[in-house]
Amino acid sequence: MIYRGKWALVTGASAGIGATFARSLAAKGANIALTARRMDRLDSLAAEVKRDYAVETKALPLDFTDPTAPQLAMDAMSSEGLPVDILVNNAGLGLPGFYTDVPWPAHRDFLELMVTSYAHFVSLALPGMQERGYGRIIQVASVAGLVPGSSGHTLYGASKAFLVSFSQSLAAECVGSNVKVSAVCPGFTYSEFHDVNNSRNIVNKLPKFMFMEAAPVVEGALRAVENGHVVFVPGVWNKFVVWLAKVLPRPWAAAMVRGQSAKFRRQEG
Ligand SMILES: NC(=O)c1ccc[n+]([C@@H]2O[C@H](COP(=O)([O-])OP(=O)(O)OC[C@H]3O[C@@H](n4cnc5c(N)ncnc54)[C@H](OP(=O)(O)O)[C@@H]3O)[C@@H](O)[C@H]2O)c1
């Protein structure tokens, strides 16, 4: 119950890793503000955690491709006097195709969701955390942010590399305070992610050991932030991939990712 009485705001809480964060934080005593686009999902998760853990909840249906959404979420919290003690920046998706296959408005929305909304949320939540002398910020990045860029899903790795570097800078700026920041870098994780980006049939052919359930990703991330680990890679396989990309000569690592992603793209047709 280490978070009893704290308020956690979880983005992308209607499914997958975000919903798992919401359940786990509620189990540890936190009141939960849930946000994503699907209100029915948020309402039913809010009812579930209220029933199971007797915490308070708030559901905020918002689309983070709208640049005003983070401010609307924070205004909704502050209008009821609710602090954001724990911020889980998690909402996201993959945008299939090569860079020039995807029209600019889709890239722009992707960057708003995956980069700008994360930075905006932190700029709104961090001052209050610093003032109150307590804060936890978890940003859900990816193994893709720690290895060379792939072909296809062109901005995905770049957006996740941004989160890793951004989290490192924030953590450096918060040293000595009780505000802790971590980037969690999952690899393949069971969620709706691969249904949304239409790659379920392809990833289903991958060996099971490459996949993790969302629960150990989330439990590891919560331990990492409490222990001051700024970049956390869950799972043995994911750690191995990141280690390999680090120890291989840069051109070899790039060729490895290029080869794997080309194989993936061929299967996408
Ligand atoms: N699953 C993986 O293999 C994997 C691996 C590494 C990193 N990640 C990262 O983990 C995070 C969570 O993904 P997941 O695997 O849990 O996928 P998921 O099950 O598809 O959940 C994605 C969440 O993001 C929300 N979301 C998507 N677009 C949104 C928008 N425009 N505005 C507001 N919310 C939006 C979705 O809610 P609504 O549709 O209701 O809006 C949903 O709650 C993402 O940042 C992803 O990049 C996933």
Topology:
Layout: E1 7-11, H1 16-27, E2 31-36, H2 39-53, E3 57-61, H3 69-78, E4 86-89, H4 104-132, E5 135-140, H5 154-173, E6 179-184, H6 193-196, H7 200-203, H8 214-226, E7 231-232, H9 236-247, H10 250-268
Parallel strand pairs: 1-2, 1-4, 2-3, 4-5, 5-6, 6-7
Principal-axis shape equals globular
Which ligands, by name, code or SMILES, are bound? NADP nicotinamide-adenine-dinucleotide phosphate
Structural class, please? alpha/beta
Low-pLDDT segments, ≥5 res = none
Strand content: 5-15%
Quickly count the domains.
Answer: 1
CATH superfamily: NAD(P)-binding Rossmann-like Domain
Number-wise, the strands total: 7
Structure report:
This protein is an alpha/beta fold and 269 residues long. It has a single domain, classed as 3-Layer(aba) Sandwich (Rossmann fold). The chain has 10 helices and 7 strands. The protein has a 7-stranded parallel beta sheet with strand order 3-2-1-4-5-6-7, sandwiched between helices. Strand 2, helix 2 (39-53) and strand 3 (57-61) form a beta-alpha-beta unit. Helix 4 (104-132) packs parallel to helix 5 and helix 9 (236-247) packs across helix 10. The model has no long low-confidence stretch (mean pLDDT 96). Bound molecules: NADP nicotinamide-adenine-dinucleotide phosphate. NADP nicotinamide-adenine-dinucleotide phosphate (NAP) binds next to helix 1 and helix 6.
